[in-house]
Every structure is written in C-alpha cells, then in structure tokens.
Amino acid sequence: MIYSTTLDIILALTLSTNKMRSYVLLSGSSNRPLALKTARELNIKLGKVELQEFPNREIRIRILEDIEDKVVFIMQSTIGQAERYIIELALIADAARRKGAKRIVAIMPWFGYSPQDKIFRTGEPLSSKVIIKMLEATSINEFFVVDIHSTDVLKMFKKKVHHLSAMSTFINYFKGNLKGDWVSVALDNGALERAKEFSERLNLPLVRFDKTRDRKTGEVTFHKLAGDVKGKNVISFDDFVSTGGTRIKGCDFLKKEGAKKYYDCVTHLIVPETTDKLKKSYIDRIFITDAVHLDPKRKFGRLKIIGIASMLAEFIKKFAR
User: Fold this and answer.
1) Residue among 277, 208, 204, 214 nearest 241 (CA)
2) pLDDT for 168-214, tens place per residue?
C-alpha cells in the first residue's frame, strides 16, 4: 500500500523551494490532514515520505526530500494503530538521520500510552515509560507533546520534551463570546489544575466536583464539593475523553444540580466510537481539537472541531533555528 497522491507529485516539483529553508516538516500516516494544515500555516509544502508495505505487512519507509543539515520535524499521533504508528515514527526518524538531518524533533499531538503512567496491580508494566524508552532509543533528539495526561509522564523523559496545551486555542475561541451567566467546572480532582487555569483565563468562577469510581464495575458517582451551577451555564476543559462515561454522567449531574447549558472542551477524543454515545447525551456542545484525526462520518451537529495547526506552526517556527 502506497500513501501517494496527486498532491505528493506536486510537492515533488517544489523541492527546490524547500531547499532554501532550514527545516522540513514530514508526516507519518496517523494524521496527515493536520500535518498538511500545519504546512499551510508555515507557507511550506509537506515533505514527501514514501510509505509502503512489504507483502508480509512490514513497513517500508523512504524520505524523498532534501533534508541534509536541516531541522526535521516529524508529525505523528500514536493512536488507533498505536504500535504501528510508533514504528512508523521510529523508522522515519532513522531515515532522517541517515539522510543527514541536523536535528530531529518528533511532534506527537497525541502521545500514545501516556495515560498508563501508573501501576495499579502487581504484574503490570509502567507502559508510558516503556514507550518513552523505546522512542528515546531512536534517532529522535527532542519531543513535542500536546496536553499530556500527567506531568509525571514528562518526568520520565531523559531527552528534551516540550509540552504545550490546546487550552489557549479554546480560550481564544471562547473569550468574549460566552454570553450570559457562565461558570467553569472541574469534574474531578484530577482535572482541578487545568480547570483553575481555564477559569482564570476566561475570568469565570470555578465550581468543583469530584467523582469516585468503583474499581470492579467502573461505575462513576459524582459529589458536589464547592460552588453552585443552578441557573448557570457551565463550561469545562480536560485533556482527553475515551469512553465518554465521565462527561456524560457529569453532564447529567450538572443538569440535576440546575445547570442550563453544558459545554465540554476536550483536546483529545481517543476512541472514535464514543461519538455514538456523546451524540445521545445531554451535553449541549462538545468541542475537540484535530490533534487526533476523526473520520468525518463520526461528526455530528453538536460536535465542533477546533484546529491546532497554527499553534503547531508557531512551535515549529520557534524551534527551527
């Protein structure tokens, strides 16, 4: 299988233009649409990478771009077929080193296995650290991640890691546009620090809740801690949603407490099938980013996707020296 398009042919004709730049942006196959948007923000063409499969489905990589003595940025979210995308990233990085890259930076809008940052039961691995050690053993010099679930994961890196949050993208979208009486909410203590910053930057009161989860059944129960949502509109921000259970039950609890509207902002939607449940929920609007590619068939009216390409482009321009 070859991921070549008519656009790739056009890109090949622009190699002479790319030669003038001190950096190149390449992409794996996990979120090529975001890489293309980021390249447009940078006013460059996305570097050409030939990605094929051998008959036994092993990956074959070839970089068809002049990258000698340039900073090479490789964009790859490791989600869905996470293990395959991790291998893709490692192979592209090795090919870049062998082709003379000056520095290699992995841009990982979603860092796969990052939520597995703790050991809950004897016999389990520390999965996030295993993945980090694997990737640090490659030719990658630095990493860039977006809204990592826990700062504990950042401490596991030995190589340099840059951490940005899509919170600014949401802030810019909502600032001055929230009409009426709004409050920000932290649905659990794990989201409290993010919720505090989010509420402060939007100049909104913060309402705190917490949840308990039955380890056997997975059942979530919410508890009121501080603040009031009665007669008010509620907005929240968190790093990712997987099954959607917390958001949906949180919404039900907020509505029972008297909330009028509930807007849920999440950087990463990591389980596409969750949109089926979110669509049936009472959440008034759901905002996610394109850090993780979502099949257009999964979109629905109350779901809004906010792009982060401009944020990624600013990072690249800053670190491409």
Assistant:
1) 277
2) 999 999 987 888 899 999 877 777 888 899 999 999 999 887 767 66
211 is catalytic: yes
User: What is the distance between the terminal CA atoms of the chain, rounded to a whole angstrom?
Assistant: 35
In 3D space, the residue among 197, 107, 118, 112 whose CA is nearest the CA of residue 161 turns out to be 107
What's phi and psi for 196, nearest 5 deg? -60, -50
Tokens 């990956």 -> residue? 59
> Phi, psi (5° rounding) for residue 33?
-55, -40
Structure tokens at 78: 């490791």
Q: What is the 3-state secondary structure (H, E, C) of 167-181?
A: HHHHHHHHCCCCCCC
State pLDDT tens for residues 268-278: 999 999 999 99
Same CATH fold, 168-290 and 6-165+310-319? Answer: yes
Burial of 246-285, coded b for 16+ CB within 10 Å and e otherwise, reads bbbbbbebbbebebbbbbbbbbbbbbeebbeebbebebbe
Topology (CATH) of 168-290? Rossmann fold (3.40.50)
Q: Does domain 6-165+310-319 have CATH number 3.40.50.2020?
A: yes
CA 247, CA 264: separation in Å to the nearest integer? 8
Sign of CA dihedral 228, 166, 210, 213: positive
Active-site annotation holder among 37, 45, 129, 211: 211
Domain ranges of the chain: 6-165+310-319, 168-290
